[in-house]
Amino acid sequence: LAKTTQPISMDSYEGQEVNITCSHNNIATNDYITWYQQFPSQGPRFIIQGYKTKVTNEVASLFIPADRKSSTLSLPRVSLSDTAVYYCLFSGGYNKLIFGAGTRLAVHP
Amino acid sequence: EAGVTQFPSHSVIEKGQTVTLRCDPISGHDNLYWYRRVMGKEIKFLLHFVKESKQDESGMPNNRFLAERTGGTYSTLKVQPAELEDSGVYFCASSQVLRTSGRETQYFGPGTRLLVL
Known about the structure:
The complex is a heterodimer. In chain A, about 0% of the residues lie in helices and about 50% in strands. By secondary structure, chain A is mainly β. Chain B has strands spanning about 5, 10-15, 20-25, 30-35, 45-50, 55, 65-70, 75-80, 90-95, 105-110, 110-115.
């Protein structure tokens, strides 16, 4: 079973900000929270990773509250090309990744 | 820097035949993982190498699957004999764990699409 819980699907429009929240009540001390993006017929692509507070890179931001029981991936100003499946996963020190169904994001014109 | 590569990109074989999938990890990455997604299911872990040693092979479905990583570089996953239910997409990922923090990021290859007829 996946260790994380996230919405099955989301819809948005071009130019909007999209926030995808992930719940992970059983996160361990040495777990990092990692988000991947996957397009059809491709492998999962690393987006962002964090341990606590806020992390930002050129494509997204990741917000993690102090209790680390949830996290929110924020995609600013999405475009049609951001339509994909997004996975929230734990990673840390030789751990296999346990995938759930992910969140299917559909961006509409 | 080259990413994780996998060969072939597609393979169509008949039931009972043998297929060998190859994964070339990012240079210098000690960790190599195999995952697969069968039709309509979620991506599942198969096994994990640290250098040439099998760290965890708890996800291997049965003894028809054999993974090797001779020399700790590229890895092969052989399915012999292939069955219909082996059809799916096989992904490889590699990583390097930061000793100071234990932080690890797995980078995935494009996958090999296997169809067993």
